[in-house]
Structure formats: structure tokens, C-alpha cells
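Worked example 2:
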Amino acid sequence: MRRQRGTSLVVAIFLIVIIASLAAFAVTAGSSTRDRANLQLQTDRALAAARAGSEWAAYRALKQNTPNCNAVTPVSNSTTLTLNQGSLRGFRVLVAMTCTRHTEGATSYSVWDVDSFAQWSNFGAADYASRRVLTRVSNAP
């Protein structure tokens, strides 16, 4: 009878270790899910920021006729935008526009190829997110 005195202590310690391990796993799994959801949200915001850059370039191309595209040789320019409003605050957007002049018969028009690249944080960082949107805009009749 004396030999069995410590067995309940061993079982109790074993159960405590198992329960603590399960609790640690649950906390780790919950944290991982939260981090993944936050990264997905930042990626969605990066897509919205890239689309905003693309729309900005389309406005410039069609309303302000920038860059001036009068030659057959492609004209390129690029601009970096730092967004500072609402949920897109802190995103950097690099917008590159290339304009080419086309002529069909007596009709002449411009075609702008827009590359809008948005990023959050720096490449290699844990919270890095980026998206690219390619757009073609024309003032063809």
C-alpha cells in the first residue's frame, strides 16, 4: 500500500502539463489566425491603394492630357504618391505612365499604359503588403 502513495501526484502533474500544453497551442493558433487576417486586410488595402493610383493616372491622362503625347515615340513619366487619408494612410504608390500616339486614317489618339504599384512597410518586414494594377487608358473616339 505504501508504494502507491505518489501515483496520484504523478497523474496530477501529467494532467497539468497536458492541459497547459493544450492552452498554449490554443493561444498560438488564435494568434496565428489573427495575424493572417490582419495581413489579408493589409493586402486588400494595398489593392485599393493601387487602384487609387491607377484612377489618378487615368484622370491625369484624360482630363489634364499629361504626359503630352504628341509624338509617335512613347513618352514615360512616373510619380510616387504617399496616401494619407482614411484606411489607405501610409501606403506608397508608384505610378508609371507610358503614352503612345496612334493614328488610324485621319483619326489620331493617345494610349496610356499605367503601372500602379502600392506597398505598405518595407519588403521583408512581417507586415509587408503590396499589389500591382496594370491599366490601359485611351482617348480614342
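The mean pLDDT is 84. The helical segments are 7-63.
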